[in-house]
């Protein structure tokens, strides 16, 4: 049973990845938009922002990586919604295909696509002057945290992909996620914000995740920040997975 599930998931994941490779607009949106943000903030707005660091791109990159993931997972909801509308799920149910493999294929596709976008953003940041004192272990920790964050948001994206009544509704959920980093420590220190905004910014998950990534990149002490970031990612993942599975079972029942 397990080998059957894994084989079906691998086949369906390759199918989804081929669709992405043929969709230039998906690639442009998930990779180029965050890179555009990074260019805008560093070369246009960066001179007016006091981040307290010698290089603004070093300060900015963790937040841009969060924006990259937030914009990329909207396509999970989009592709899932289209599969439902096109009757793909019904066709697969009439075939000897593990039901859950259809869902996991979309999740794995999101992990692969977002990983490629993240690598592209980091490479551009290096060209722009980003430098890190992180060793191999710290880079692995960065990759692990971003992977966990991507997985959590991907399962969150599955819910509107399964329950939305229109394509606009399926992708609109990602807009607040893209906007959330702007009310965090991603672009400016929270100390510069008005008190009500600062209180919100300091206690929302993006700030904890961004600060943990920034500390890993710069070799600073992590303290309890990393555990807080991991707790937020794990909590979102567990809740989103539970709701997504319930929505999936209702949809295929």
Automatic annotation (TrEMBL):
It is found in: Cell membrane; Membrane. Pfam families: ABC2_membrane (PF01061). The keyword Cell membrane applies. It is a multi-pass membrane protein. The keyword Cell inner membrane does not apply. The chain crosses the membrane at residues 24-47, 59-81, 102-130, 136-158, 170-188, 226-248. Residues 25-251 form the ABC transmembrane type-2 domain. Keywords: Antibiotic resistance, Cell membrane, Membrane, Transmembrane, Transmembrane helix, Transport. InterPro entries: ABC2_TM (IPR013525), ABC2_TM_bact-type (IPR047817), ABC_2_transport (IPR000412), Nod_factor_ABC_transporter (IPR051784). Belongs to the ABC-2 integral membrane protein family. This is Transport permease protein. The lineage of its organism: Bacteria, Bacillati, Actinomycetota, Actinomycetes, Micromonosporales.
